[in-house]
Amino acid sequence: MEKTLNKLEDTWKDIAFEFTQHKQTDLKLIRMSEENFEMLEENQVAVTSMFSSRYLATFEEKCVYWQKSLAAIAEVVQLLAEVQRSWSFLENLFIGSEEVKKELPKETEKFIGIDKEVKAILKDGEAKKIALIFCNQGNVFQRLEEV
Q: How high does pLDDT run on average in the chain?
């Protein structure tokens, strides 16, 4: 258990997101590589299995930490993918189309607020780079859910 927990610590301190340029802007979209996402799922299974160990009491605090941290990464990465997909589509409509702005002024105004928040989240992700750090900050999941 101790070796596995130490390996988690050693591995996840360096797992960074991948970034792709968003259109012709300075904004970068965030994703986790397929390889790292598979490793995340494997690590979650390994941590979950530790809870049935008779040695859990010794490592319970670390196990709980890793269970919560890995779950947060999985949830944020999945939600972030959905938000980026929707936002990219809506951005074309509400920012790129003068006709939509005229036809749907209230929705356009609402989207402008969403657009600012999504861009702030993406810039924060780019600045932090490391999945463990970005996904485990207190409010990132909540912020993504609200946009």
A: 97
Confidence (pTM):
0.94
- Residues 2-146, CATH architecture: Up-down Bundle (1.20)
Tokens read off for 123 = 């810039």
Pairwise CA distance, residues 133 & 72, whole Å = 10
> Measured in Å, how far apart are the chain's first and last C-alpha atoms?
39
Domain boundaries, the chain: 2-146
Q: How confident is the model at residue 138 (pLDDT cuts 50, 70, 90)?
A: confident
Using CA atoms, how far apart are residues 105 and 1, in angstroms rounded to an integer? 57
Residue 146 pLDDT > 90: yes
What does the block give as tokens for 11?
A: 């591995």
In the three-class reduction of DSSP (H, G, I as helix; E, B as strand; rest coil), residue 21 is classed as: strand
Closest CA to 123 of 27, 15, 32: 27
